[in-house]
C-alpha cells in the first residue's frame, strides 16, 4: 500500500518534465554525460602528452613534434604490434619508426645536414638545400611510402603539402604555388601523365623526387633509394619541435568543388587533437581499422592515420576501394572498424549478396555523409553494428559526433556537448547569403526544427588558421559581432537543423540551397525523397538557371537500380505526395553513373553549369509539365517552348 501511495510522487517529476517539454532532451542525458566525460578525459590525456613532450630531452625523438614523439612512443611501448597492412605487406610500429627515420635523414641531408648525419648517400646534384620549415609536396597514392615520407618530413622539421593525386596542368601548378612548395615527391606511375608538366615544374625551381625507381626523366632522383641508404636511428627531437603549437605543419587542399583548391593550414595543435578521434568514437588499441579513403584529404590522413596512432591500433590501408572485395578483406584481416564516406556504404548495399558479408567482425562504422536511406539498409543488411556519423571540416574548428546512433543525425546539441565543443546555429538568409541580424546587429539563434548556419567561436583552443596564400582567401569564413561586440565565429558554410530532442541533422550547403517560387529548396531533402523510390539507386539534386524565371529550378540527375527502368508516372506521383510543389524537380537527367570528386562528393557545380539543353547533352532529359501533371521527354521543341514561355514549369 505504501508503495502505491509513493507511485504518484515518483511519477510527478516525469510528468512535469513532459509538461515543460524537457523530457525529449533529458532522456539522452546519460549518453550526453558519458560522451562529455570521455571527451574531457581525451583532452586531459592529450595535454599530458604535450607536456611530456615539452619536458623531454630535445635530443631524443620524444622531444619532437606530436607525430614524431607519438610514433616513437608506440615503437617503444608496442614495437611488434602491427600498425599497417597494405596488400601482402605488414609493418609493425617499430618498423614504421625505422622507415620514417630513414626518410627523415634523407630529407635532412637535402636540408644540408650532411655533417651532422654522418654516413649515407652522397648527394652530387647542385640542388639548393631545403630551408628549415620549407614545404615539400607529396603527389602519391595511398600506400605505406606516403606515410613514411609524411612522418619523415615532420621529423625533419619540414612542412608537408598533400596534393590531390588527380591534379595535373594548371590546377597542379596552382596548388604548388599556393602552398609555396620547394620540392615535389611524385609516384613513378604518375610520370607519364605528368610529362607535359615537367618543364613548368622545373621552371618553378622545384626539387623533384620520385618515390621509386625512375629512369626516363632527367633531374628526378629516387627518394626511396636515398632513404634506404640512410641509417634508421632516431633524429633529434629539437629539429621538429614547433616554436608554437599553432605553427603550420601541413597543408591539405580543399576539394575545389566551387573553384581551384585552397591550401588549408593544419597546425600542430590540430594534429594533436586528431589523435583523439578514434578514442572519442569508442575504438581501442586492439581494433583493426579499414581505411580506403585518399590520404591527401583530412578523413584519410588526420582522422584515419593520426586517429589510429592516437589509440595505437592497426590500420588496413587500401589504395582503392572495392565494394566487391570489401567483405573478403574484412574477413581476412579480422577488421573491427570501418571508416566510411557515405557513398562507400551506398556502393556496398548495392552489391549482390555474398557469403563474406556474414560472420564478419566489424562492430563499428565511423564516417560522414551517410544518408538515412542508405544507413537503414546498411545496418539491416550487415548488422549488428554501430554507425557513428560525424561532422567536420578540414579547416574548421568544430566537430560533432552522433554517439547515440540516432538514424540520420550527425551529432547532438546538448548543453554538455556544447560545453566541451561550443557551437551555435544562427538564422541565415539564402537570398543574400548572409546571417540574419537583429536591430542591435547581432545574429539570431534558431528555434528547434529551423535550419540554421553552423558557427563556432574562434579561440586559442579552437582557432581558424585560414589558408596559404593570404588572408583574403579566408574572407567570409569569419563572422564578427555574432552574439556580442567583438566576438569572432568560424562560418562552416553548412546549414543544420536541431530537433526538439537535441539531435543535429545536416540540411544543406549554403551554396547548394537555392530559391524557387520565393521558397528555399534544400537539395538534400529532395534527394532523400527521391532515393526512397525502389528503382532509383543514386540521386544528385541541384539548381539550374531558367531564362525568364527568378531563382533556380530544381534538377535531379538519376541513376537507375538494375534491373529497374524509369517509371515517370510513379516518380511524379511520389514527388507530388512527398514534397511541396516548389521543391518538385523541374528537370530530370538520366545517367549511367554520377560524377563525383576524389572524395566521392557529388559534382553539383559542374552539373549546374551543364544545364538542361538537349542539343548539348547526350543523356535522356525530362521536364515537368505542371499543367499536365507529368514528366515528359525534353525534346528540342519543348526546350524552345520553355525558353519562349509557352511551357509552364
TrEMBL record:
<keyword id="KW-0812">Transmembrane</keyword>
<feature type="domain" description="AMP-binding enzyme C-terminal">
    <location>
        <begin position="525"/>
        <end position="601"/>
    </location>
</feature>
<dbReference type="GO" id="GO:0000166">
    <property type="term" value="F:nucleotide binding"/>
</dbReference>
<dbReference type="GO" id="GO:0005789">
    <property type="term" value="C:endoplasmic reticulum membrane"/>
</dbReference>
<keyword id="KW-0445">Lipid transport</keyword>
<keyword id="KW-0813">Transport</keyword>
<dbReference type="GO" id="GO:0004467">
    <property type="term" value="F:long-chain fatty acid-CoA ligase activity"/>
</dbReference>
<keyword id="KW-0472">Membrane</keyword>
<keyword id="KW-0443">Lipid metabolism</keyword>
<dbReference type="GO" id="GO:0005886">
    <property type="term" value="C:plasma membrane"/>
</dbReference>
<comment type="similarity">
    <text>Belongs to the ATP-dependent AMP-binding enzyme family.</text>
</comment>
<keyword id="KW-1003">Cell membrane</keyword>
<keyword id="KW-0436">Ligase</keyword>
<dbReference type="InterPro" id="IPR025110">
    <property type="entry name" value="AMP-bd_C"/>
</dbReference>
<dbReference type="GO" id="GO:0005739">
    <property type="term" value="C:mitochondrion"/>
</dbReference>
<dbReference type="InterPro" id="IPR045851">
    <property type="entry name" value="AMP-bd_C_sf"/>
</dbReference>
<dbReference type="InterPro" id="IPR042099">
    <property type="entry name" value="ANL_N_sf"/>
</dbReference>
<dbReference type="Pfam" id="PF00501">
    <property type="entry name" value="AMP-binding"/>
</dbReference>
<dbReference type="Pfam" id="PF13193">
    <property type="entry name" value="AMP-binding_C"/>
</dbReference>
<keyword id="KW-0732">Signal</keyword>
<feature type="domain" description="AMP-dependent synthetase/ligase">
    <location>
        <begin position="130"/>
        <end position="403"/>
    </location>
</feature>
<keyword id="KW-0276">Fatty acid metabolism</keyword>
<dbReference type="InterPro" id="IPR000873">
    <property type="entry name" value="AMP-dep_synth/lig_dom"/>
</dbReference>
<keyword id="KW-0547">Nucleotide-binding</keyword>
<feature type="signal peptide">
    <location>
        <begin position="1"/>
        <end position="22"/>
    </location>
</feature>
<keyword id="KW-1133">Transmembrane helix</keyword>
<dbReference type="InterPro" id="IPR020845">
    <property type="entry name" value="AMP-binding_CS"/>
</dbReference>
<dbReference type="GO" id="GO:0006869">
    <property type="term" value="P:lipid transport"/>
</dbReference>
<protein>
    <recommendedName>
        <fullName>long-chain-fatty-acid--CoA ligase</fullName>
        <ecNumber>6.2.1.3</ecNumber>
    </recommendedName>
</protein>
Amino acid at each position: 500500500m505504501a508503495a502505491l501511495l509513493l507511485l504518484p510522487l515518483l511519477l510527478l517529476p516525469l510528468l512535469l518534465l513532459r509538461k515543460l517539454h524537457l523530457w525529449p532532451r533529458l532522456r539522452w542525458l546519460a549518453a550526453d554525460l558519458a560522451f562529455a566525460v570521455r571527451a574531457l578525459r581525451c583532452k586531459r590525456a592529450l595535454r599530458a602528452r604535450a607536456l611530456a613532450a615539452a619536458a623531454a630531452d630535445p635530443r631524443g625523438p620524444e622531444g619532437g613534434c606530436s607525430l614524431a614523439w607519438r610514433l616513437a612512443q608506440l615503437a617503444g611501448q608496442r614495437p611488434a604490434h602491427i600498425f599497417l597492412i597494405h596488400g601482402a605487406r605488414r609493418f609493425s610500429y617499430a618498423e614504421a619508426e625505422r622507415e620514417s627515420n630513414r626518410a627523415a635523414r634523407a630529407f635532412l641531408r637535402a636540408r644540408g645536414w650532411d655533417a651532422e648525419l654522418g654516413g649515407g648517400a652522397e648527394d652530387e646534384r647542385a640542388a639548393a638545400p631545403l630551408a628549415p620549415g620549407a614545404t615539400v609536396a607529396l603527389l602519391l597514392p595511398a600506400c605505406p611510402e606516403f606515410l613514411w615520407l609524411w612522418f619523415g618530413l615532420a621529423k625533419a622539421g619540414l612542412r608537408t603539402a598533400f596534393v590531390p593525386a588527380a591534379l595535373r596542368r594548371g590546377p597542379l601548378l596552382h596548388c604548388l604555388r599556393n602552398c609555396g612548395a620547394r620540392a615535389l615527391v611524385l609516384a613513378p606511375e604518375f610520370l607519364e601523365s605528368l610529362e607535359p608538366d615537367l618543364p613548368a615544374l622545373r621552371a618553378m625551381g622545384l626539387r623533384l623526387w620520385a618515390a621509386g625507381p625512375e629512369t626516363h626523366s632527367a633531374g628526378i632522383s629516387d627518394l626511396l633509394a636515398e632513404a634506404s641508404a640512410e641509417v634508421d636511428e632516431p633524429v633529434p627531437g629539437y629539429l621538429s619541435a614547433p616554436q608554437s603549437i599553432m605553427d603550420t605543419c601541413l597543408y591539405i587542399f580543399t576539394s575545389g568543388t566551387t573553384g581551384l583548391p585552397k591550401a588549408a593550414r593544419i597546425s600542430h595543435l590540430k594534429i594533436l587533437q586528431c589523435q583523439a578521434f578514434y578514442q572519442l568514437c569508442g575504438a581501442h588499441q586492439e581494433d583493426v581499422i579499414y581505411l580506403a579513403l585518399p590520404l591527401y584529404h583530412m578523413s584519410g590522413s588526420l582522422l584515419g592515420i593520426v586517429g589510429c596512432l592516437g589509440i595505437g591500433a592497426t590500420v588496413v590501408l587500401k589504395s582503392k576501394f572495392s565494394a566487391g572485395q570489401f567483405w573478403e578483406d574484412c574477413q581476412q584481416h579480422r577488421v573491427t572498424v570501418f571508416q566510411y564516406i557515405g557513398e562507400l556504404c551506398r556502393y556496398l548495399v548495392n552489391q549482390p549478396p555474398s557469403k563474406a558479408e556474414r560472420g564478419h567482425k566489424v562492430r563499428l562504422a565511423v564516417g560522414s555523409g551517410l544518408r538515412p536511406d542508405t544507413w537503414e539498409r546498411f545496418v539491416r543488411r550487415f548488422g549488428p553494428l554501430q554507425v557513428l556519423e560525424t561532422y567536420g571540416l578540414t579547416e574548421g574548428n568544430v566537430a560533432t559526433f552522433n554517439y547515440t546512433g540516432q538514424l540520420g543525425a550527425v551529432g547532438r546539441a546538448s548543453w554538455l556537448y556544447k560545453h566541451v565543443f561550443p557551437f551555435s546555429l544562427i538564422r541565415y538568409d539564402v537570398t543574400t547569403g548572409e546571417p540574419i541580424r537583429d536591430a542591435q546587429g547581432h545574429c539570431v539563434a534558431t528555434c528547434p526544427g529551423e535550419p540554421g548556419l553552423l558557427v563556432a567561436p574562434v579561440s586559442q583552443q579552437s582557432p581558424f588558421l585560414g589558408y596559404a596564400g593570404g588572408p583574403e582567401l579566408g574572407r567570409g569564413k569569419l563572422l564578427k559581432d555574432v552574439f556580442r561586440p567583438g566576438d569572432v565565429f568560424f562560418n562552416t558554410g553548412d546549414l543544420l537543423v536541431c530537433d526538439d530532442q537535441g539531435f543535429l541533422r545536416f540540411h544543406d550547403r549554403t551554396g547548394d540551397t537555392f530559391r524557387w517560387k520565393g521558397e528555399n529548396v534544400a537539395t538534400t531533402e529532395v534527394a532523400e525523397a527521391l532515393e526512397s523510390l525502389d528503382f532509383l539507386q543514386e540521386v544528385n539534386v541541384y539548381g539550374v538557371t531558367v531564362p525568364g524565371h527568378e531563382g533556380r529550378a530544381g534538377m535531379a540527375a538519376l541513376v537507375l537500380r538494375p534491373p529497374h527502368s524509369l517509371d515517370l508516372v510513379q516518380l511524379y506521383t511520389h514527388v507530388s505526395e512527398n514534397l511541396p510543389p516548389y521543391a518538385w524537380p523541374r528537370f530530370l537527367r538520366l545517367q549511367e553513373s554520377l560524377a563525383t570528386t576524389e572524395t566521392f562528393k557529388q559534382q553539383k557545380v559542374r552539373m549546374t553549369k551543364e544545364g538542361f539543353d538537349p542539343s548539348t547533352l547526350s543523356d535522356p532529359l525530362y521536364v515537368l509539365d505542371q499543367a499536365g501533371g507529368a514528366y515528359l521527354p525534353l525534346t528540342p521543341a519543348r526546350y524552345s517552348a520553355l525558353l519562349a514561355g509557352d511551357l509552364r514549369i
